[in-house]
Target: Fe-S cluster assembly ATPase SufC
Amino acid sequence: MLKIENLTAEIDGKQILNGLSLEVAAGEVHAIMGPNGAGKSTLSYVLGGRPGYEVTGGSVEFRGQDLLDMEPHERAAAGLFLGFQYPVEIPGVSNVQFLREALNAQRKERGEEPLTGGEFLKLAKEKAGLLKLDMEMLKRNVNVGFSGGEKKRAEMVQMGILDPAFAVLDETDSGLDIDALRVVGEGINAIMRNENKGVLLITHYQRLLDVVQPDKVSILSRGRIVKTGGPELALRLENEGYDAVMGEPA
Ligand code: ADP
Ligand code: MG
Ligand code: MG
Model:
């Protein structure tokens, strides 16, 4: 589904990704772990096509297409969803408005009819229920005054509504208490655990991986993948730390 080969990218002339290669097949959850500053968020921004992140080499194939050749909105319409480490606030725009616009823009791009207000509200209620987020929250302005946990749950409602083929989730567990972590993790499973979908799950903690069990775990360090293994790799990192595990031969 996603095939990244020898990707290099820079910000402000500083090279951050240094020949990163990674593949995620349909049906897989691939966890990415790594020390602070390794380039995990940079990878998600590059995949999303964020301005300022300049790709200087390598390739990314997404569902048979050249991802790097696509505009950010084309990537989204092709089924790519990005969850952010720091969700943005949008004063003056309600969640419902925002989500409906986002969904209908993608449907238009794919040549599909927009959902009516009624159809959209039904869908939004279903997904809000899944994430145990009160519909009243969705009537409020996007993320304004939301707690960390509410932002993440609202973002997962957005993911449920857009129903992407592939999600890149950057530290979705940050700032969540134990209960919210379980709700969000189970939401990810419900929305994305499917033989036709894939997930790149960036996290520092095993506790999310207890809920969203990864098929593969890779360690990202200094802008490249230095080790890939199964779920046991995350457990070893938790117990032994990065230095011990990365010090071994790949
Ligand atoms: P991670 O998510 O793994 O903690 P990041 O991708 O956020 O790492 O950052 C990787 C490196 O890129 C860090 O050294 C960080 O300081 C640097 N970096 C991130 N954003 C910028 C920026 N806008 N300008 C310059 N350097 C940046
Ligand atoms: Mg970081
Ligand atoms: Mg980060």
